[in-house]
Amino acid sequence: MKPIPEMDYHKPESLEEALELHDQHENSTIMAGGTDIIPQLRTGEKFTSCIIDISAVRDLNYIKEDEGFIKIGSATTHSQLINSDLIKKEIPALHESVSEIGSPQIRNMATIGGNLCNASPAADSAPPLLVHNSEIVVASKRGLQIFPLKELFTGPKSNCLKTNEILTEIRCPKPTKAFGSAYRRIGRRKAFTLSLVNASAHIEKESNLPTSVRIAVGAVAPTPIRLFELEKKLIGKPIKKMIQIASEECVKLIEPITDHRASADYRNEMTKVLLKRTLEAGYKRAAM
Structural domain tally of the chain? Predict the structure, then answer.
């Protein structure tokens, strides 16, 4: 295993201190759990001259309901999300997704903000948050900005954050209607592996027919994506018809690649499988 290159290391205890350090060091990198960054530094995939470790910033670690949103601090760990009754109730798809990330040791360290900012096309937390219409809060010395989560992802392992900006919060609108959401993934083994394909669905319905359908998929395009065109075609359709349309139409909206983990054809077929599973689970939960 290669050693980590020499660099400056800072561990601020406040957001203000972190922003000041980030502004002072031109090539600085924000780290919380380090489960993505440390391996990338060892392999040479990533280079930085300064690490700013925000794991001690308590104001970035929380899960709460506030002002009609479920708010999650960016330094909140996956284990904290798993153990949160609020997440399990209000964002069940996210609860399912983080439960399948890595090992217990990794989940104790890895953070929701890190998983999103790493911007892997296969990021497990992204599809559930996308179907829950999540927003992100970004801080800099200029103040705070709020924008839709989908704008964070700009390409494989690439996000829109500028060098002096820090993701501080993920916020999901608290559901006002009965709904069901679900997450499913396929990997090369059951645990401790990247998703070959993942998917999430969010359904609201009345009189046993969906009035709102949201679908997101990962590992089948340069970034995690919402399938907006497909969603419109599923509203008002019985579950069997929804699944039929989703299977026929989804492959027109995704761009899977062939790599050492799976072929594009396999990812196409598995997207159909996962959409069926997530739609069925979301539909069933919406009735409860």
Answer: 3
